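TOKENISED FOLD:
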Amino acid sequence: MHAIDGEVRGALEDDFHHFRVLIRHDGARVTNVEATALRQPFSLCGAAGGRLDELVGQRLLRDTTQFFRIHDALLQCTHQFDLATLAIALAARGGSARHYHAFVEDGAAVEQRRATLRRDGETVLRWAFQDGVIEAPDAYRGQMLGRGFTAWAGTSLNTDDAEAALVLRRAIFISGGRGRTEELDRQPHAVARGGCWVQQPERASLATREKGTSRDHSDRPHQLTAGDDGWLAFEDAEDFGSSPTATLDSDDPSQI
């Protein structure tokens, strides 16, 4: 993420997603949010960026956990929402840039795995976890990664540590899809499990699978968001990127 006066730009890329989010603010509140999907697993992921309009008028907050108390992230694209909250927090701090890079070991859920998070080039978190529970270090031991984690982080950790914990937790969730590309590509559309906007029961069957969009960056992590460098540096102010077009066959405003 990079910021100038009144504007923050953020980019996120992993094996399955590549999003850009831009927020504008007046120094106290969000005045505009834009998002685009450069790569997405389902056809309606990009359309979910319109849900970020709920953040317009939002007070600038340094604590990213608070956004999840105010807004229902399950009715958003969770990845675009995460990125937007990180951008707002950067604006609230008055910072000029922040960069996260997460590494998660492959392995079955029942095996102990390790996850590492670097922030602005410095390692800030190292977890050992197994079957959805953090086993090390001691400060996180026994903490479940599922429901309740955000509230725990918001009350038990300082603002920067809580933000980092949410980022690494999301990376662990995303890593669960690695090695499953063929299985995922056999799905005609999103599964109605309610985990995000496209997975809501009324919408999942409309969100068709975007086959062939998964990328394995294991041997080339330096390429993640490399194509965003110019945009993040405000060198190409008008080039926000082209989002895949997808529309809903519905006049129901609740579908947007």
Observations:
- The first strand starts at residue 2 and ends at 4.
